Amino acid sequence: MISGIGHSSFPELRVSSLLWSFYMVSSKDTKYWVPVDDEESVAVAVAAAKGRGGEDNRPLLYRTFKVTGMLLHPYRLLNLARLIIIVQFFIWRIRHRDSDSMVLWWITVVGDFWFGVSWLLNQASKLNPIRRVPNLALLNQHYDPPGGGGGGSSSQLPCVDVFINTVDPVDEPVLCTMNSVLSILATDYPVDRHATYFSDDGGSLVHYEALLETARFAALWTPFCRKHRVEPRAPESYFAAKADAPYAGDAPGEFVDDRRRVRQEYEEFKARVDALFTAIPQRSSEANGRGDAKDGGGGARATYMADGTHWPGTWIEPAENHKKGQHAAIVQVMLHHPGDEPELGTPASSSSPLDLSAVDVRLPMLVYIAREKRPGYDHQKKAGAMNVQLRVSALLSNAPFIINFDGDHYINNSGAFRAAMCFMLDARHGDDTAFVQFPQRFDDVDPTDRYCNHNRVFFDATLLGLNGYQGPSYVGTGCMFRRAALYGADPPRWQPDGGSTSKLLDSPRARFGGSMPFINSLPLAAHQERPPVAPPVDERLAAELADVATCAYEDGTEWGDGVGWVYNIATEDVVTGFRLHRKGWRSMYCAMEPDAFRGTAPVNLTERLYQILRWSGGSLDMFCSRNCPLLAGRRLHAMQRVAYTNMTIYPISAAFIFAYDLLPLMWLSGGEFYIQKPFQTYAMYLFVGIAMMEVSGMVEIKWAGLTLLDWCRNEQFYMIGATGVYPAAVLHSLLRLVGLKGLPFKLTSKPVSASGGAAARERFAELYDVQWAPLLVPTVLVIAVNVAAIGAAAGRAVAFGWSFAQVAGAAAGTRVAAFGWAFAQVAGAAGGLLFNVWVLLLLYPFALGIMGRWSKRPWLLFVLLVAVLVAIASAYVAVLAVLAPAGSVGAFGPGGWPGVGAISISPASWWI
Ligand SMILES: O=c1ccn([C@@H]2O[C@H](COP(=O)(O)OP(=O)(O)O[C@H]3O[C@H](CO)[C@@H](O)[C@H](O)[C@H]3O)[C@@H](O)[C@H]2O)c(=O)[nH]1
Ligand SMILES: [Mn+2]
Asked: What Pfam families would the database entry show (predicted)?
């Protein structure tokens, strides 16, 4: 999608195009990866099988790669050297307690120490990167041999329950969500072996009816995808892409016609979905006008379903029991479980223009869920919604594996479910693997990724690093789980009797709640070979389904604690993954080409900042809770513990960074000042430290396959977070510690353009939309202080130059000495200046962000900057002239500046 944008239309692209061309590395570039010895893998597999007391003929379904020694050894050596230098640096500082202010000296020693530690934590997670590549062909050969026709009973692949979540049909454009559903309904996995559970946390009729429309359209879309094997299977993205992929289906002659017809049908489908926003209110107001409320009504203006009955969920005009946060549970099977025999479609006819006579036209099961909402209950947001999905699905399809998606994430590569299975079924660690995490990839991010939405350093470096220990953390979407693990089972390798789930069944009612059908489903949940079951939804089952979706069901149970997704935290993902790792489960990272899934990301600065506020606040809350990685037992891998500590403690660095960034304030008041003497040695240590980190970063982007721009964006966004967001997160966590409310889960609004509805709309409009929020203030302050520092430095230089001329003129004999002195001062000042400029460079995306539409012309920012600098400099000179009459200006000297200037930047990215 991004490739469709003309370069010239995008100003920032020109600014950064140099970076692009300088360091383009494709993520496919795998020349830095070498296979880990396969014999070793086999040995591990055999040992694992023996450990479980039996032969294991299962195939090895993935290959493991590590970074080539040519890169890895220097990388590790470099980091070792850096560690030694950092330690030496501290020894040196402690031995030289010499500063113009001992208070500041102590602050910076503590601060620098903290940065050293957090650098170490961060680096430690990346020392052993491992990449695993699934072998889909082998999986298919063993579990889904040809003849099954993409479905049918010959397949031995395990069943998968797919969870997808949404809240609001406007904030999360319903068409985007329905595209995700379509991509799931059409995915390349045996149709009778996956079922989709759609959770609508808004309880809105728009979602319900849109899902009905989607189920209808899928009857055409899914067979079309199967017949012509098209990718990706989300229609919006499919039709937006150029149709130049090599044809993979069996009927090339019919492709062009079929595609055109389906596209037309898709346009009509879109129009019908769009029309729901007007059709439903219209239908309801007509019905209300007639006063033909079938079930009570009590004077409220009801929202009507198509069949003329009241919608049990939220109404357009909120009423008692029909409003946000207060409505009944709704569970509706929209597509029933298909039989396990393929059903071929019909030849082309006037009513169905596609020839589907050779295509299996069955659709997978699809269920709509709106859980009950009652005032007085904490609904626990996404985690609460997914736990309801977990119970509802247990009563219906009860698949041993579960994959979950945010409403805006669609399947981009139909092989994804199979890829995940390669890890789950592998003979080596398969049985001990609780989840397989895929990277998050995004469409509709601006081409230069101003706010680091792609997060490549995290997804392509850090998570590969974790993959070399116990496994990647869970990041909320695009993750396949083992159901038994979510229920709280122990991994086989930590089970004394080898592989039984009996412990799960100890006092099940207390743990899982009172539903007998649910409890009866527990023993089956662990059996991956179990054939798919699909009980008919009779009255009793319907009542049971509604019951497990009520608020009260979880009262006094372990849901949200020992069972299911974890509650009471803004980042349910990290902590849920952590709890599994803590039990000794492994996880696997699966990055594939083309990307398995794609989603949307907030391109608006304020949205993005709130998102990272939720992440950083949630992480810190986790650190300060019972789920602190330091408190975990011995089943947590040592390095995994280090990584989780890093992942949860990082916002604390912010307190220091923020203070450091404001230090230039001090200099504005004038006076010579060194934070550490001798300053030259101090500066040298800092310089070497930074240089080594930069080099190490360059090695990292090599093996991770990143671009220099990815890396720079990461640095920049770290700094932006550190100045404004992380301090707020620290504050929130402190408030929570003293018993006040924790961070809310603020829904991230999705870009409207992602749904494609209004193609005429400006692309990335949200990028230029400034929404002022308190969160922006601290960063603005830091920018102001650093700009002021530069301005004042300029002013000082002007004033100083003038006084220097006077001094020189008066005492010609000492000219040489005076020159030398002046030179040292100027060099020092230049160094300080450099540091301030660096802060500003790191905050550059932020500055663009608050310029709003003006940022379409980035040069305006520079004009503004120069104007402000001139103004400050002149003001400074004027003030100096008043305070210090000619001749005594030299007493101020610019000398103090470098010390403070140096400090102002040091933390930003040197250690991290
Ligand atoms: O009450 C709620 C609130 C949210 N959601 C869903 O949760 C998902 C994620 O919400 P979103 O606002 O898109 O958050 P993001 O910041 O984009 O999400 C990232 O961060 C979250 C944790 O903070 C993870 O759960 C997500 O998977 C990850 O993509 C969406 O599908 C929502 O519909 C609910 O189902 N119920
Ligand atoms: Mn999202």
From this structure: Cellulose_synt
